[in-house]
Amino acid sequence: MNDCRHILENLTATVVVLDSSLRIRAINPAGEMLFHLSARQILGIGLRELLPHNAALIGQLEDSLESGHPFTDHGLRVTLADGRDITVDCAVTPLPVDGTTELLIELTPVDRLLRIAREERMLDQRATSRALIRGLAHEIKNPLGGLRGAAQLLERRLPDDELAEYTRIIIREADRLRSLVDRMVGPNTPLNKRSTNIHQVFEHVRSLVLAETPDGISVRRDYDPSLPDFPADPDQLIQAILNIVRNASQALAGKGTIWLRSRIERQFTIGQLRHRLVLRAEIEDNGPGVPDEIREHIFYPMITGRADGTGLGLFIAQDIIHRHDGMIECISRPLQTVFRIYLPMGDGNG
Ligand SMILES: Nc1ncnc2c1ncn2[C@@H]1O[C@H](COP(=O)(O)OP(=O)(O)OP(=O)(O)O)[C@@H](O)[C@H]1O
Ligand SMILES: [Mg+2]
24-68: per-residue pLDDT in tens? Predict the structure, then answer.
């Protein structure tokens, strides 16, 4: 019996048992995650109440209860009470128990599978563009050093001081290019992992951003205080999150709200590794949203929607998160842009 419980608790599929009035009699942790409610809050609640916008599904369940026939449905759209739409594969089995019938329901979120496939593709592309950038950086920096040195030598021999203005331009532009290339290659120092508190990271970023933003912007916190510390490089996480919060603050152009949010996810898959505990850190703003034409590409280097942007902030942020074996995604529409970071908190059991 204990073994069964262990299996149920570790399934990524939601398993629910309903009584003959479609009230929840049992639910596994994946189900609690799906509905954003704890088992204690959810037991005894009617499914009609939990899924008020799914009359068709409820009708099918009633038929199954009455007829005793199981059914399965693929790619079923379900609207949750909080408005979230999810796509699931659904299997329903009527179980005769003590003279009545109960329903065993298994829901497998399909969105998650699609997401994992997309993510693998991204990691792939990412490795390719990294290799390309490193190669290019090397090819650019070598001749750049020569160019700069020659300009300095030339400057010393110039007969006319006025001409030195041109050699200084060469030197300045060479320096600018060099620092750009350095940023593109990203922080090269190995991660210095230690026990890290995500809220301290958020608070650090918050104070930095508040110091440089106008009064019209507020930065609110929505933290899960029960979150444990986890191994990470706090300095690099500060850099990553700062880049994202700065973008939000720039997008708000002096007016609006930024939310910093922390949550925990259980049994969550990143890439191909399933983790028991994953931190979900979110940065949300109510600005205009990421421009349509760059939305698909914002994590690539040199993609910018700002006149004075270099398009490296998110590229670097993503690099840092990936080096922590995490993942970052962006969901954006006018008045709601969310950058969501997932970081494994140890105990990867993939
Ligand atoms: N919260 C946001 N709201 C709206 N647009 C955003 C947001 N975050 C990022 N963007 C868009 O994504 C682009 C890329 O961001 P990224 O940080 O990579 O580069 P940048 O801010 O343009 O330049 P850099 O950070 O290198 O100075 C931004 O120019 C902006 O157009
Ligand atoms: Mg930026």
Answer: 999 998 888 888 888 889 999 999 998 988 888 999 999 999 999
pLDDT at 348 over 60: no
Q: Is 238 helix (H, G, I), strand (E, B) or coil?
A: helix
For the chain, what is the largest distance between any 2 Cα atoms, rounded to a whole number of angstroms? 106
Instruction: Please report the pLDDT score of residue 349 as a whole number.
Output: 38
Type and span of the H or E element at 276: strand 273-285
Closest CA to 340 of 281, 285, 294, 287: 281
The region that residue 260 occupies, defined by phi over 0 for left and psi between -120 and 50 for alpha, beta otherwise, is: beta
DSSP 338: E
Ligand 1 neighbours (beta carbon < 6 A): 243, 247-248, 251, 285, 287, 289-291, 298, 303-306, 309-315, 337
Q: What is the DSSP letter of 249?
A: H
Contact predicate 343/232, CB 8 Å: yes
Length of the chain, in residues: 350
Residue 66, C-beta contacts closer than 8 angstroms, at least 6 positions apart: none
Q: pTM for the complete prediction?
A: 0.66
- Whose CA is closest to atom 17 on ligand 1? 313
- Residues 283-299 have pLDDT tens digits of 999 999 999 999 888 98
At residue 199, the 3 state secondary structure works out as: helix
* Residue given tokens 């922390």 in the structure block: 262
Name the amino acid, one letter, at 347: D
Closest CA relative to residue 329, chosen from 44, 81, 113, 116:
116
Q: For residue 219, give the H/E element and its range.
A: strand 217-222
Structure tokens at 57: 């599904």
How far, in Å, is the centroid of ligand 2 from the Cα of 302? 10
Cα–Cα distance, 192 to 197 (Å, whole number): 14
